């Protein structure tokens, strides 16, 4: 447990530092874009959180499989923490995307496959917590949560699969502004080339790194919290034992 | 002669949507900070519970002697 | 007992129960028809043209929602009679149990579909009997049943099974329903898609089906263990 107490502050500080560094890069290093102006800079955090959210769900999947095979509770805690962070990141992604969408394409929202499936993903992982709270027996709760974390990842796969597939065949029926919104929300919005592209890519990479470290920091803090909760439960049991004497 | 002037008119001000830019980042931060506050709150409650119970157990042990 | 025998026995048992009580099928059909009527007048005062345009979407919506009711009935019955635990005492491979229950659920859903399809053709006069659409309907239902059986089996072992089944099934099956619905809608367009554009949505639904089936088969022993 002392190993957690040592790594936690290091990770926290590193995460904050990297996020600060990313912000500096986003606002001062990333190139200026002509068409929509500086508001495009939201993309760096928008994509960063989206990508790391998928990472969290993948790790939750791994944690689920590992828990079922080993029965070790730490895997379940990893899944729990990962999904929690993943939901937070998806919320951030959606908020940033929506706020960016309004000035860029004059719409807060569009019903494109990617957006629909992102909201569905969010719902699926919220349901994970509802499932957990409905199972009383602890061992069974961990088992069912693990199974659900595995099944839920299929939605993530479908999300990314659909984007590739449906973009190619979806009939173009909207007006031009929404069309571009669909296109950008569905994929690789290419804004720059050459030097500017490199700077943009670096900023994106830094942002993704920062969010990955933030995710790690939050997971470690979750483990510490679980240890504290265990300690509290132990004390409660001792207290109850004493009171009943 | 009108050419260059029209060209500068067509180049829209890149800063015109900065309000949205700030709003977007602020929104993301608020979500993150809300989560951190939530975690800190849960942690604080658990630590308080632990302290309380440790105190009670201590008093109980003392009074048992 | 070999695999197929087990599956067949479970399906026969469930069908016997269903025939006697008619619970799942009845509730699904009543719901489906009532919902259809609601959706028709919800689209602008019984505007038949609006509903006609959305006929296939309506069908998918109705399948999606009535499926949870069917699952609810199937798996609530399990808890009431403790049938699931009784089945577990026998040395059956959990995978066979999963496939068996999946087939039972699937049969009820397909019967509902078979009743709804001609009704929809009559009500809305759209050619939803196009073979590609039928294929996607079948595949979509399989995926829905695969995911639904897995999570409903878990929900059946909790106290709030009736609440939990919709909460777990609806979001989890939305991706396949969405993909299948948009894919099948392509075949009602004025210019039906050529082969290159036809197979991707079918492949996507098939992917979901396979993935869910694999997850179900591989984790079901953890669902049923005590």
How does the SSE layout of this entry go?
The complex is a heterotrimer of chains A (245), B (65) and C (226).
Chain A: H1 2-29, H2 42-70, H3 73-105, H4 113-134, H5 138-169, H6 176-186, H7 195-244
Helix pairs in contact in A: 1-7, 2-3, 2-5, 2-7, 3-4, 3-5, 3-6, 3-7, 4-5
Chain B: H1 2-10, H2 18-64
Chain C: H1 3-21, H2 23-42, H3 48-53, H4 55-81, H5 83-89, H6 94-124, H7 131-155, H8 161-185, H9 195-224
Mean pLDDT of chain C, to the nearest integer, reads 86
What is the SS-derived class of chain C?
mainly alpha
Q: What's the N-to-C terminus distance of chain C?
A: 22 Å
How is the main sheet of chain A built? none
Instruction: Calculate the terminal CA-CA distance of chain A, rounded to whole Å.
Output: 32 Å
Number of strands of chain C: 0
Largest sheet of chain C: none
Uncertain runs of chain A are: 169-179
Low-confidence stretches of chain C: none
User: Topology as H/E string of chain A?
Assistant: HHHHHHH
Number of helical segments with 4 or more residues of chain A: 7
Arithmetic mean of pLDDT of chain A: 85
What is the gyration radius of chain A calculated from CA atoms?
21 Å
Overall morphology of chain A: globular
Helix content of chain A: over 70%
Structural class of chain A: mainly alpha
User: Biggest interface in this structure?
Assistant: A-C, 36 and 40 residues
Helix count of chain C equals 9
**What is the H/E order of chain C?**
HHHHHHHHH
Helix content of chain C: over 70%
Briefly characterize the structure.
The complex is a heterotrimer of chains A (245), B (65) and C (226). Chain A contains 7 helices and no strands.
Characterization of the model:
The complex is a heterotrimer of chains A (245), B (65) and C (226). Chain A is mostly helical and 245 residues long. In chain A, 84% of the residues lie in helices and 0% in strands. Chain A contains seven helices and no strands. Chain B is mostly helical and 65 residues long. The mean pLDDT of chain B is 83. Chain C is built from nine helices and no strands. Chain C has helices at 3-21, 23-42, 48-53, 55-81, 83-89, 94-124, 131-155, 161-185, 195-224. In chain C, helix 7 (131-155) runs parallel beside helix 9 and helix 8 packs antiparallel against helix 9 (195-224). Chains in contact: A-B, A-C. The interface between A and C is large, with 36 and 40 residues.
